[in-house]
Every structure is written in C-alpha cells, then in structure tokens.
Specification:
- This protein is α+β, with helices and mostly antiparallel strands and 114 residues long.
- The protein has helices spanning 20-26, 30-40, 58-70, 89-95, 99-104, and strands spanning 47-48, 74-79, 82-87.
- It has a three-stranded antiparallel β-sheet.
- It is globular.
C-alpha cells in the first residue's frame, strides 16, 4: 500500500452558529482583516493559502485561517496539493448584516494610526 500525505479536510463553522464576540474577535486582528479583504477582492476558490501577502509564517497563517473558519468567514477546500479559499460573504452577511461591509471599507488613517 502506497503512503499518502493527504491531510484532513478543514472543519467549518456555519455563520448561523457563530456568536457575536467570536465574529468580532476574528475580525480584530490586522492579518485576518487583510486576508478577508484580499479574499473579498478575489474570485471564489481562486486563492491558495500561500498566495496572501501577510507578514506571518506558515504556522501562524494556518492559525489565522482556522480562526476565520471558526468564525464562519472562510470556507476552504483542497485542490490537489493546494488549499483554496472563499469568503462566505452572503452567509456571513445574513448572520451579521453590515459587519463585513464595515470591515471591507477602506478608511484613511491619520499619522497616529487612528
């Protein structure tokens, strides 16, 4: 029998099961906001995990995606050796109307970062 390096499929939480504090905590991190914004600007299933321009290593990136899955924001699936992503925009909007729009809105920052 040949050995395979197949990894377990990721577990997903449906946005209907997500409490407000969990959604807010997932969106409180700048790296996760970047991931969500980049996914929002991309076609579904077109972005692999390694294609994001974020200043974290592979393990930290995996953690950030796990938090986003747990908050019902992201769905992932394996396509060969790649794990691809989609933003669960409509499902999340149905659960938390307007929240994703606020996150996706670019707001200018002053020099103090506010």
């Amino acid at each position: 029998m040949a050995a395979t390096s197949h990894r377990a499929a990721p577990e997903h939480t449906h946005p209907e099961q997500v409490p407000v504090p969990t959604a807010l905590a997932a969106l409180a991190d700048p790296v996760r906001i970047t991931l969500v914004r980049e996914l929002a600007a991309s076609a579904d299933w077109s972005r692999s995990c390694g294609s994001f321009d974020v200043p974290v290593g592979k393990a930290a990136l995996s953690h950030h995606f796990a938090v986003l899955r747990g908050a019902g924001l992201v769905e992932q699936r394996d396509e060969g050796p790649r794990r691809v992503n989609r933003l669960r925009r409509q499902e999340f909007e149905d659960r938390f109307p307007g929240l994703l729009a606020l996150v996706l809105r670019e707001e200018p920052c002053d020099e103090a970062g506010q």
